[in-house]
Amino acid sequence: MSATAGRGGGAVAGDPAARILRRRLDGTHHVDDWGLDPDLISLLAPAVGLRWSVETQMTGRLPASGPAVLVHNRAVGISEPVVLARGVREATGRHVRTAGLVDVAPFATLGRALGGVVDRPSELTGVLRAGALVALPLGRDLRPQRAGPLAAEALAPALTTGAAVIPVALVGREVGRRWRLLVGEPVDHPPGKGPLAVAELVDAARARVQTLLDEAGPRWL
After folding, report:
1. Can you tell me the distance from the alpha carbon of 184 to that of 28, in angstroms, rounded to the nearest whole number?
2. Which of 9, 16, 132, 161 suits 195 as a labelling partner, its CA being 20 to 30 A distant?
3. In-domain check, residue 16
4. Which residues contact 9 (CB under 8 A, 6 or more apart)?
5. Are 115 and 36 in contact (CB under 8 A)?
6. Cross-strand bridge partners of residue 133
């Protein structure tokens, strides 16, 4: 089954819940090669909408098709990955794969169904080659000198696959309902694909996210 991430949510999102449930009962619902289950995401969408309201700005910078890594800030809590996935899906109809899945049963099965992927380079490379959007959190401290090995390792597949690297700032509070999603211009790929090029890409991506947060003002904390 294809993991391509074109405008893939629309038809399912428009189906009544009864039809979605019927597909699950008769075994005709679709799950892709990495476990993403669009029907399950659609069933949960109303509940997610009650908890989080997302305003996405500069949506034209989100690719309508093709692979991309969405580099974003991440604090303690669960809001940022959900907010990003919801905002992107509402803006483009595309599903987002969130890197950082802990590959331990039974949590991994549900996590994959909701779009989670393991942040191993081999898996990220495969997902990107299939044309997906991958969300990569870079942590609360976004200063370039704090870029750790995980960030570098996880961004390396963007260079090897040629995927766009797009900075995204998520502005809101963990206990709040209203969030803003600010999309930046894609980060230029440095020449080469070695460790130095990956480190340069990490630094540039972190700096772009921090700039978006600074422009949004101090209330994002």
Report:
1. 38
2. 132
3. no
4. 38, 41, 42, 89, 93, 94, 95
5. yes
6. 68, 96
Q: What is the pLDDT of residues 56-80, one digit of tens each?
A: 999 999 999 999 999 999 887 889 9
pLDDT tens, position by position, 13-31: 445 678 778 877 777 778 8
Q: Could you tell me if residue 95 is inside a domain?
A: yes
Structure tokens at 167: 């900075």
Specify the DSSP element, H or E, that contains 134: strand 133-137
Closest alpha carbon to 1 in 50, 41, 36? 36
Q: Give the span between the Cα atoms of 202 and 158, in whole angstroms.
A: 11
Task: Answer yes or no: is 25 within a domain.
Answer: no
Full residue range of the structural domain in which residue 212 is found: 53-220
Contact present, 33 and 117 (Cβ < 8 Å): no
**How far apart are the C-alpha atoms of 125 and 119, rounded to whole Å?**
10
| pTM of the predicted structure, to 2 decimals | 0.84
Number of domains in the chain: 1
